[in-house]
């Protein structure tokens, strides 16, 4: 619902009218709304793992630490959520 509004608003800027939507966003240093939502989800997941949402999402993810994985020794395991 907001994406068409953002498309129209970026077309109103002089000099950017004839560029594609992606090029207009790049010129303005903006992300499309889908990428901003994903970015927000990643921030929320990191805050959850650091303990910011203890009551709301208890058991949503658990850390599984193992020496059998490459990179970080800790991975996320999906829990049950009701």
Number of helices: 3
Structural class: alpha+beta
Radius of gyration: 19 Å
Share in helix: 40-55%
The biggest sheet amounts to: 2 strands, antiparallel
Distance between the termini: 29 Å
Mean pLDDT: 78
Q: How would you sum up this structure, described in words?
A:
The protein is of the alpha+beta class and 82 residues long. The protein is 43% helix and 12% strand. It is built from three helices and two strands. Strands 1-2 form a two-stranded antiparallel sheet. A hairpin with an 8-residue loop joins β1 and β2. The chain is elongated, with a radius of gyration of 19 Å. The mean pLDDT is 78.
Core attributes:
82 residues, 43% helix, 12% strand, single chain, elongated, alpha+beta, 2 strands
How would you summarize the topology of this molecule?
Layout: H1 2-11, H2 21-28, H3 33-49, E1 61-65, E2 74-78
Antiparallel strand pairs: 1-2
Short description:
This protein is of the alpha+beta class and 82 residues long. It has helices at 2-11, 21-28, 33-49, and strands spanning 61-65, 74-78.
